[in-house]
Amino acid sequence: xxxxxxxxxxxxxxxxxxxxxxxxxxxxxxxxxxxxxxxxxxxxxxxxxxxxxxxxxxxxxxxxxxxxxxxxxxxxxxxxxxxxxxxxxxxxxxxxxxxxxxxxxxxxxxxxxxxxxxxxxxxxxxxxxxxxxxxxxxxxxxxxxxxxxxxxxx
Length: 154
What we know:
globular; alpha/beta; 7 strands; 2-enoyl-CoA Hydratase, Chain A, domain 1; 3 helices; about 150 residues; two-stranded parallel sheet; 5-stranded mixed beta sheet; single chain
């Protein structure tokens, strides 16, 4: 069985890959845990100087998995009102090393929120960006705050 997110180090370059191509790399609980482990490893790995984050298959990340979304935002103790707001790289973990997003295909929801936190973005001609969750009645909180501040940098 393949991991839902992978971390590979080649020299001083870490590659973090969304690895659920059958679901367009949509994030579920298992992938959230794997992504958090990968970014934590990058943050702590002194041999890793820069990271490239990308998606396996035809998409970068199609956002939260609407069929299997349990745990896609992370696991938290306590009630909804006690959940921390900084629980992953895309929601604000500080990483003081450069992160490059290599975007292929769909980059939606959580995927686009992560891209707004990256230092550089390289997009293929097939890349499509968006926050489709607003059509389902879900707010795009972190992404909506960060996107206007970052769009011109990248």
